[in-house]
Amino acid sequence: MLQEWLASLPLDRIPYNAVLDLVNNKMRISGIFLTNHIKWVGCQGSRSELRGYPCSLWKLFHTLTVEASTHPDALVGTGFEDDPQAVLQTMRRYVHTFFGCKECGEHFEEMAKESMDSVKTPDQAILWLWKKHNMVNGRLAGHLSEDPRFPKLQWPTPDLCPACHEEIKGLASWDEGHVLTFLKQHYGRDNLLDTYSADQGGSSEGGTLARGEEEEKRLTPPEVSHGDRDTQSVRPPGALGPRPALPESLHHSLDGKLQSLDGPGAHKEVGGAAPFLGVDFSSLDMSLCVVLYVASSLFLMVMYFFFQVRSRRWKVKHHHPAV
């Protein structure tokens, strides 16, 4: 949606304040807004504060490590063609700079300093990230951030990949060759679904389930279906049809308003809000201020007259004329 809006503007450059107003829903343009309700597809937790963004970030970088290994031509022209650590180092810098959990970022940086330099091939990058993800799962198992419906396990579990598990001298171990094959299949581009709807029930059609969906199917009781939990469509924006083009009059209107944003101190809201003391107030905000001001004034006047009358009565009651 944001990309379509940017592409539709007849401007050579977009002022930063214009984009900021758009993502903060201050540009009241019909049909262009960011929803306040976040619905994750493969990382929806049992509560809104669980899974979600951290889960999706892990999935993204697992997918990127697999893509860099299976389709190295994707890095042509980026300057990272011969760097097996390209995805890992990018993830490292992203987590260090942007990830909101400082403690999590510090733990990831410790793991990176410890062994990331040992990665010499793209396949080793896939396995390195998988091992570290399992280390994090082991450390956070039972933590308050763990979703009880999606416990943090050593993944893949035996029911997902029996060949990935082996026993050596009575001790459970990983068969990394089979793990690598499983990860490439699971996070490969042929296994990605670009459409999704919760009311379609199980999504086994069209390939293997994504990791979060596999866990959900395994951990959800048979009598509870996806449709019973939430019948609202959660198709990603890319799965929707093309949005209608903005009318020419709106192009010219946006052109003038966006250019006015580019000047110093000329930050204005498209929705008709008036800046006052450095803060944008809408007409509703101003109306509420006036109502509260009038109500406060009336209250003070009533209290003033009440105490005036009470004071006079007290003086009359206790007045003793001289004899």
UniProtKB/TrEMBL annotation:
Cofactor(s) essential for the protein: FAD
Region ranges (Disordered): 195-249
Main enzyme class: oxidoreductase
Enzyme Commission designation: 1.8.3.2
Biased composition (Basic and acidic residues): 211-232
Domain ERV/ALR sulfhydryl oxidase: 46-155
Catalytic activity: 2 R'C(R)SH + O2 = R'C(R)S-S(R)CR' + H2O2
Top-level division of the source organism's lineage: Eukaryota
The entry's keywords: Disulfide bond, FAD, Flavoprotein, Membrane, Oxidoreductase, Signal, Transmembrane, Transmembrane helix
GO molecular function term, any single one: flavin-dependent sulfhydryl oxidase activity
Residue intervals passing through the bilayer: 290-307
Biased composition (Low complexity): 235-247
Name of the protein in its database record: Sulfhydryl oxidase
Lineage: Eukaryota, Metazoa, Chordata, Craniata, Vertebrata
